[in-house]
Amino acid sequence: MADASVPSFKAADLVIELSSTPKNKQDEVTFGNNFTDHMLTVDWSASEGWQAPLIKPFGNLSLHPACSSLHYGIQLFEGLKAFRGDDNQLRLFRPMLNMSRMSNTAKRACLPAFDQSEFLECIRRLVEIDQDWVPHSDSGSLYIRPTFLGTEQSLGIKKPAHALLYVILCRVGSYFNSGAESLSLWADPKYTRAWKGGTGNYKMGGNYGCSLFAQYEAEDHGCQQVLWLYGEDHQITEAGTMNIFLHWINEDGEEELATPPLDGIILPGVTRQSILELTRKWGEFKVTERYLTMSQLCSALKQLRVKGVFGSGTACLICPIGHIVYQGENLHVPCQDKKSQLASRIAKELTDIKYGRTASDWTFLV
Ligand SMILES: Cc1ncc(COP(=O)(O)O)c(C=O)c1O
């Protein structure tokens, strides 16, 4: 339902210019390079408000060199996917959660509000136009990248009076190409991804740019991703660009699936929320949002109380973690045999919903 109280562009005003030179549709080799034929753009200015949304051939942007997103990182993005079901129907997974996270991030970035349902309808139209790009396979999907930039043409640091909202699409396969069954993480408290009062719980580009250096140091230590720690007690927060879950027998002897709480330093993942809701509905074990520290994990590993650790996110869905390098030790994290593994069970249930094998109100039809 459109929210009339928010001044916004309207999907009914969409202007559509189709490409006359559609590209060859290659299969995805590396993540994020295989862009479709069209993009959506919507301009905003403080003086004129939102302009009509436009779907046009995919192409470069023209930005003023003083543009505030380039200088001060007044920028944010989202990430969601379209899946082609066995019934050939295209589905998005809980896209209103992405719309809402994007609106929250826009507010924090001093970028203007928009009507989330109107924006989602524009995205739906874009995906519909480029629908032939959605792979006919259940390992592939179409990645949707909404982006929002401050386009203020001035070096002054201020709330932008000009902004550009746009969406690009690319065909994607599997996110991790290492072929490994589980991920290795490097945990060193010298780097921090997010801090209280900062922007770690918002999807701003700067959060990712400043994490790159640590990512390469993780690779120097033979690991694939960073396990981000926080505070004196080395709290476990996120794994690379994924939320993290620990499935264990907790200190009180109870079986528990635990993930850190949304206290401002954790990105509120759509997959995270879905895993919490799904497993709480099963009612088979305790499901909690609680602080977890490296010392708790190390003791649990020693006492053989850990059943599994996994990351979650739109890009990879569920990714089991097999090793953590911490304070000079390579900690082996057990993964139960494939069939009984909780990570596989959750991944299957979510995949069945995304590809329409299980009916669910978590899907949004294109
Ligand atoms: C830092 C971070 N954590 C977690 C996630 C997982 O979020 P989601 O499940 O919405 O993809 C992402 C990906 O968006 C991320 O960038």
UniProtKB/TrEMBL annotation:
Its cofactor is pyridoxal 5'-phosphate. Keywords: Amino-acid biosynthesis, Aminotransferase, Branched-chain amino acid biosynthesis, Cytoplasm, Lipid metabolism, Pyridoxal phosphate, Transferase. Homodimer. GO terms for cellular component: mitochondrion. It comes from the Eukaryota. It catalyses: L-valine + 2-oxoglutarate = 3-methyl-2-oxobutanoate + L-glutamate; L-leucine + 2-oxoglutarate = 4-methyl-2-oxopentanoate + L-glutamate; L-isoleucine + 2-oxoglutarate = (S)-3-methyl-2-oxopentanoate + L-glutamate. This is Branched-chain-amino-acid aminotransferase. It is found in: Cytoplasm. InterPro entries: Aminotrans_IV, Aminotrans_IV_CS, Aminotransferase-like, B_amino_transII, BCAT-like_C, BCAT-like_N, BCAT_family. It holds the Pfam family Aminotran_4. Transmembrane segments: none annotated. One of its GO terms (molecular function) is branched-chain-amino-acid transaminase activity. It comes from Zoarces viviparus (Viviparous eelpout). Catalyzes the first reaction in the catabolism of the essential branched chain amino acids leucine, isoleucine, and valine. One of its GO terms (biological process) is L-valine biosynthetic process. Its EC number is 2.6.1.42. Its main location: cytoplasm. The modification N6-(pyridoxal phosphate)lysine is found at residue 203. The keyword Transmembrane helix does not apply. PANTHER family: BRANCHED-CHAIN-AMINO-ACID AMINOTRANSFERASE, CYTOSOLIC, SUBGROUP IIII AMINOTRANSFERASE. Belongs to the class-IV pyridoxal-phosphate-dependent aminotransferase family.
